[in-house]
Amino acid sequence: MAASVDDRTPKQDRSRATRARLLEAAIDVLAERGFAGATVAVIAEQAGVSRGAAQHHYRTREELLTGALEHMFDERMAEIRELAAELPSGPGRTVAVVTGLTDYFTGPLFRAALQVWTAAAADPALRDEIVPLEARFGRVAHREAVELLGADDTDPAQHRLIQATLDLARGLGLADLLTDDSARRGRILTQWAATLDEALRGTRTEPAG
């Protein structure tokens, strides 16, 4: 006799919950132990599930790690979109957006991603999986920045300014890897936000949110 939808739902919910725990644990382990230490066994233990359960959802370590990066990036971009309605207007908005984007590059997701990017540089098979994913991250982050700042992305100068903002954020994230660089970072972001706001002033559209 076929199971009803209600009978299946708890199992589906448990499966989604297990996958979410694995993805979040993968990010934590990558950030704390690096790529070499992020084995399926270690990630499964961190998530509180068996290794067999982990491999049921993700056949390989590479599949689990790339899935984790994609999941957590989507979560981070969703958080940024949700905060859009609370952002101030004027110059205050620009510095808030620039700071919010930079927070991604100084958080555990970027640290985890950096571990995978480094490993992919020496592993052609992994690189083939990571390059399209990294390209997607870049496109989505660029689009969110354009919308939040109200920039005109059809204008080549403004397009380059948005890209420079993301490149600056990535560089500041790298500078924060070994030591707390928050004080210097705050001064740089304030100055860059003022420069960016001046460049966009008079040509920007109404920001999203």
Short description:
The chain has 209 residues and is mainly α. It is built from 9 helices and no strands. Helix 1 (5-37) packs across helix 4 (61-83), helix 4 runs antiparallel to helix 6 and helix 5 packs across helix 8.
Query: The biggest beta sheet, please?
Result: none
Shape: elongated
Category by helix and strand content: mainly alpha
Mean pLDDT reading: 85
What distance separates the N and C termini? Answer: 50 Å
Extract low-pLDDT stretches: 1-7
Q: If helices are DSSP runs of H or I spanning 4 or more residues, what is the number of helices?
A: 9
Order of helices and strands: HHHHHHHHH
Q: What percent of residues adopt helix (DSSP H or I)?
A: over 70%
DSSP strand count? 0
Rg from alpha-carbon coordinates: 20 Å
Structure notes:
The structure is a single chain. With 209 residues, the protein is mostly helical. It has 9 helices and no strands. The protein has helices at residues 5-37, 40-47, 51-57, 61-83, 91-105, 108-121, 124-149, 156-175, 182-200. α5 packs antiparallel against α7 (124-149). The relative contact order is 0.11.
